Amino acid sequence: MWDEARGSTECLQLSRAGGVESRESGSRGDGQREYVMSTRKTSLGRPLAIGLVLIIFAGPLFVSSQVPVPGQADLEQKAGLASDSPEKPLAPSGTNPHDNSFVIGNEDVLSINVWKEPDLSRSIPVRSDGKISLPLVGELQAAGRTPLQLEEEIASKLRNYITEPEVTVMVQQINSQKFNILGQVTKPGSYSLAVATTIVDAIAAAGGFRDFAKQKAIYILRQAPGGKQSRIAFNYKDFIKGKNPDQNVKLEPNDTIVVP
């Protein structure tokens, strides 16, 4: 009698702790108590096992989703900076794209650019008097100066109207440096060095030889720095045969080619 009452009490306590909803009567013995214990272990063990399996398989997926792809963060950061920062105009280059040893002459065409001032930027030829005219600046002497010298003067005059003007002067077309070709050629005359740089180029620009041209006796008259005139021979017949190719010299301003 006492054993049955004690068994009923233990069964009731086990059912409360393990979630077993049925209440066992006191008439059940040791076999019923063992069944309750095994039911409790099974009900607790299955959820734990399933939870461990889910954690094992879900763990790598969670970690991989948190680790960024290499380079992804940098790309996102750069994209964010590009979208947030406003576009800025490009500053003018610090170097002038021209040769400062070149001396501007009459009839040269200059490209004058004033940064952020399209109304003042333009291509303009040097007049026969060696001057040019610009808005806000007026007339300037261009012939006999280098592009850098002309830049500085234009900028100094524009400071009365513009804060820190950035001026660039480039020689767009060279017409002042010329050579002459005379004698037995189709079109003798004066030509720009821009169209011909050697004796052969000059002959081609002049339309070639006439029928009785002495192609072996061509020469160049060149002014020496001391005022004297030098004579440079050129044998066209030898040149076209590949003999003495160095005689096809580069022309200089005011050279005169004579084809007898």
Question: Explain this structure to me?
Answer:
- The longest helix has 37 residues, at 30-66.
- The protein has helices spanning 2-18, 30-66, 72-84, 147-158, 199-205, 236-240, and strands at residues 109-114, 122-125, 131-134, 138-141, 167-173, 178-183, 189-192, 218-223, 229-234, 256-259.
- The protein is built from 6 helices and 10 strands; from the N terminus they run H-H-H-E-E-E-E-H-E-E-E-H-E-E-H-E.
- The protein is of the alpha+beta class.
- Helix content is 35%, strand content 20%.
- Strand 3 (131-134) and strand 4 (138-141) form a beta hairpin.
- It has a 5-stranded mixed β-sheet, with helices on one face. A 3-stranded antiparallel β-sheet has the order 2-1-5, covered by helices on one side.
- The chain starts with a helix and ends with a strand.
What would you say about this model in short?
With 260 residues, the chain is α+β, with helices and mostly antiparallel strands. The chain contains six helices and ten strands. The chain has a five-stranded mixed β-sheet with strand order 7-6-10-8-9, covered by helices on one side. The protein has a three-stranded antiparallel β-sheet with strand order 2-1-5, covered by helices on one side.
